[in-house]
Write a structure and sequence with these properties.
Rossmann fold, Aminopeptidase, 8-stranded mixed beta sheet, 18 strands
Length: about 575
């Protein structure tokens, strides 16, 4: 993105009334960096203009302290060496004396401790993205360049300890320096003339890339949900039907280690709760023999379902999506054949198709890096760990429900836990990823989520579910606020893994009992995907809704089926867990 393009992007939203406020906390003069940063945020924000405020030149700690009192939607902190001690920058001319090294180290340690405290406190109030120094240190140390100086190594140790402490003990997000180095070479970052003349130290390309890295942390893209992979010359090297099960490989001895690394990435993503399915044109028995090999890197139980047949790949992909019960637009399909990729792309609209670069080790390494970007998560929840196993178990329960749903529910030994006003990462995740049972398709950014939680009139209900077949973890979230004595519900989602268990009926019953009211107001809006929730409201109201709905207690009671689950309640107001 050029500066002209960045200005055009920012100005395209200038007349919009909705506003998103961000702060750029830096010790240097922001100039073009502010423009690049605002443009990157615009590209990651659906509606509304982006307003970026900046602090005082040379006063990074003071800027951060002021933001604590009135936090914006997000704060970017591009830290540089001169923010830790002015003598480590090029605008200072009184620090390159050999006898001042110890004093600089002491000064930096004090400043890092100060910044750690204020950043930690600020991160409790808003989203904070931090980048560590990206510019070179001055040639102010004793040895010739190319030889490490003890003082430099100590500076970097202090900095690494500071960053590690923030990531481990606070909500501050830190830019990965290695990834930034790969896209912005260190030798092309510093603009000496601009720094000495105006106080702005970056060349345009580096300013744009650093702004992008910080914006990515403040406005992260929701991770994708599933990967469907081919087998031959993709999961492994070779064609199992022709070469035999013992001749396919993914190791150093056969010079096919890149396929082993691909399997390693699939195994890692599976542990994050990513679905991993297989679509292969193969004899199903032969394919299973390959997947049963003891040296397979990705655990066999992580691959579900496996579609091995001679039919069209698009048909296999559609069946996998139906099993997962997720949309094609959140799934990546990988195959070494351009023909198969084209067939699937045409037959499954919305799915992302990527050619597996068989025989190209560098290409495979690049691919698995991109997979981490598409599917990586900052936290792993219990629900992530349960996802694949509960999906497998769901096959048996769905069969039972189809045969005799009432009998299944009666004997499922289900337990539901209602968690009132206890927000966590899983609640936020469910709201922003659930589609089929979603009240109105509303999505929240982190700033809006924080404002909602701080509202004294707001309420939040999260629901955990488990039965004798499997625990599903936290599967539903309902939220709203009191207005004129009426509970107005504008968020309600239920994971597709929890359908057919009457959890939604338990939620409604819990709301009537908790609020002690005769009616609930739902801010319903039909979307392209929320037909499941629409059907529920239609059952209660007698007509398909096309907008906000009021559900009375009498209608609920007259249409509510039998509920068998044991219900417990956990309330943040009293900390008690009791039978509801």
């Amino acid at each position: 993105m050029t500066l002209v393009e960045a200005l055009r992007t920012v100005n395209s939203r200038a007349k919009e009334t909705a506003r998103h406020g961000f702060s750029l906390a830096c010790g240097f003069t922001p100039l073009h960096f502010k423009t690049f940063f605002a443009a990157q945020l615009v590209e990651r924000t659906v509606v509304g203009r982006i307003d970026v405020e900046v602090g005082l030149f040379g006063d990074l700690p003071g800027t951060l302290r002021r933001l604590i009192e009135n936090p914006p939607d997000g704060v970017a902190v591009p830290l540089e060496w001169s923010d830790l001690d002015s003598r480590l920058g090029f605008r200072s001319t009184n620090g390159w004396r050999i006898d001042r090294g110890a004093d600089i180290l002491s000064s930096v340690q004090m400043r890092l401790s100060e910044l750690s405290l204020v950043l930690t406190e600020l991160s409790q109030r808003t989203t904070v993205a931090l980048s560590l120094p990206t510019l070179p240190l001055p040639p102010m140390f004793k040895p010739p360049r190319g030889m490490s100086d003890p003082s430099v190594l100590e500076l970097r140790r202090q900095l690494a300890e500071f960053a590690a402490g923030l990531v481990q003990t606070s909500k501050v997000r830190v830019v990965d320096s290695q990834q930034l180095d790969s896209v912005s070479p260190i030798s092309t970052r510093y603009d000496t003339a601009s720094d000495l003349r105006t106080g702005f130290p970056y060349r345009p390309d580096h300013a744009c890339l650093l702004a992008e890295a910080l914006a990515n942390l403040l406005r992260p893209v929701a991770p994708m949900k599933g990967i469907i992979t081919d087998l031959d010359n993709t999961l492994w090297s070779g064609i199992i039907g022709e070469d035999g099960v013992d001749e396919i490989s993914w190791d150093l001895d056969h010079k096919t280690q890149a396929h082993g690394l691909y399997q390693e990435m699939l195994a890692s993503l599976s542990e994050l709760g990513v679905f991993i399915g297989v679509a292969s044109k193969n004899d199903p028995l032969v394919a299973q023999q390959g997947l049963q090999r003891a040296d397979l890197v990705v655990p066999r139980e992580s691959l579900f379902p496996v579609e091995a047949n001679w039919g069209a790949k698009s048909e296999s992909v559609r069946r996998i999506l139906q099993t997962w019960n997720i949309g094609a637009d959140s799934v990546l399909f990988l195959d070494d054949s351009p023909i198969e990729l084209a067939e699937v792309a045409a037959g499954v609209p919305g799915i992302q198709c990527r050619q597996f670069p068989t025989g190209d080790a560098e290409g495979i390494l690049q691919l698995i890096g991109e997979m981490r970007d598409l599917f990586g998560k900052t936290t792993v929840t219990l629900e992530d760990q349960l996802r694949v196993s509960s999906l497998r178990n769901n096959g048996a329960t769905v069969t039972s429900v189809a045969t005799d749903p009432e009998e299944f529910l009666r004997h499922a030994e289900a337990e539901i836990t209602l968690e009132w006003n206890i927000p966590d990462d899983r609640c936020f995740e469910l709201i922003n990823k659930t589609n089929q049972f979603n009240l109105n398709g509303q999505r929240l950014d982190e700033a809006a989520w924080r404002r909602r939680l701080a509202d004294p009139q707001a309420f939040l209900l999260a629901v955990r579910y488990g039965d004798k077949y499997a625990p599903l973890g936290k599967v539903s979230v309902l939220a709203g606020r009191w207005q004129n004595g009426i509970p107005l519900i504008d968020i309600w989602v239920l994971s597709c893994r929890a359908f057919s268990r009457r959890i939604e009926h338990q939620v409604l019953q819990a709301c009537f009992e908790r609020f002690d009211c005769d009616q609930l107001f739902f801010d319903f809006l039909p979307t392209e995907r929320n037909a499941t929730l629409c059907e529920l409201l239609t059952d209660f109201c007698g007509a398909e809704p096309n907008g906000p709905v009021i559900l009375t207690r009498s209608k609920f009671k007259s249409h509510c089926p039998s509920l068998y689950a044991k219900v417990l309640s956990h309330d943040s107001l009293n900390g008690n867990r009791v039978a509801a």
